[in-house]
Amino acid sequence: MIKRPESSKIIHVDSLHLRHNQILMASGLIRGGGVIVFPTQYLYGLGADAMNPQAVDRIFEIKERTHRKPILVLIQRQDDLSRFVRHVPSTAESIMNTFWPGAVTIVFEAADALPANLTAGTHKIGLRMPRHPVASALTKAVGGPVTATSANVAGDSGCSRVSDIARGIREQVDLILDAGALKGGLGSTVVDVTVDPPNIIREGAVPSKDILSAIRIRKVRS
């Protein structure tokens, strides 16, 4: 894909009044194998077609990320899970029903259909249904799973402003959707439901106690 000057890649988006043509442009780039920067609920992420191994490889290269670490993915709705995971435990259903769409990434056993580099050989995949209007509209327009790993060099902090994203990343992506300052923070909380009880891999926007409480309520009701 032809690289353009950074200034010509940046499109300012209004999260409350989305322009259809902006989302169509971004989703078209993703479907064509491109990589974009876009806003998630708390931090900016790198978006690519999660089912395209070459596009996923670009994510690793842009982030300078080891291929031993999997990349999380956004989906449009819970019904999409059957395409990407082997099993949906009852604990996962409780978490999804309580916090999705929102800032909780759930790690499942990955289906064989997913690219091997996406799961980094772990046979697991982290999925989230986004709340942010741009991320939600983008996932819907692409019509498939979109990567959402944070737009930062591996080991660095995530970025809540486009201006804070490393220059090397801004130069390598094909488009930047700038929605202004985001909430910032640690990003999504990551929960592994392939084990029982579920394991909180990373505590982020949603406190661990809230997730564990949702699971306990589910068990009591059942």
Task: Walk me through what this model shows.
By secondary structure, this protein is α/β, with parallel strands linked by helices. The protein has a single domain (6-221), classed as Alpha-Beta Complex (DHBP synthase), CATH 3.90.870.10. Helices cover 34% and strands 18% of the residues. It has nine helices and eleven strands. The protein has helices at 6-9, 20-31, 53-63, 81-84, 90-99, 116-119, 133-142, 167-172, 208-221; strands at 10-12, 36-39, 44-47, 73-74, 104-109, 124-128, 146-147, 149-150, 175-178, 189-192, 199-202. The chain has a six-stranded mixed β-sheet, with helices on both faces. α2 (20-31) crosses α7 (133-142) and α5 packs across α9. It is globular, with a radius of gyration of 17 Å. It starts with 5 loop residues before the first helix and ends with a helix. The model has no long low-confidence stretch (mean pLDDT 94).
Structure summarized in a few sentences:
The chain has 222 residues and is of the alpha/beta class. It has one domain: DHBP synthase (Alpha-Beta Complex).
Secondary-structure blueprint:
Layout (H helix, E strand, L loop, with lengths): L5 H4 E3 L7 H12 L4 E4 L4 E4 L5 H11 L9 E2 L6 H4 L5 H10 L4 E6 L6 H4 L4 E5 L4 H10 L3 E2 L1 E2 L16 H6 L2 E4 L10 E4 L6 E4 L5 H14 L1
Parallel strand pairs: 1-9, 2-9, 4-6, 5-10
Antiparallel strand pairs: 2-3, 3-8, 4-7, 5-6, 10-11
Helix pairs in contact: 2-7, 5-9
- Percent of residues in helices: 25-40%
Question: Distance between termini?
Answer: 52 Å
Give the mean pLDDT. Answer: 94
Q: In terms of per-residue confidence, which ranges show pLDDT below 50 for 5 or more consecutive residues?
A: none
Give me the number of helical elements: 9
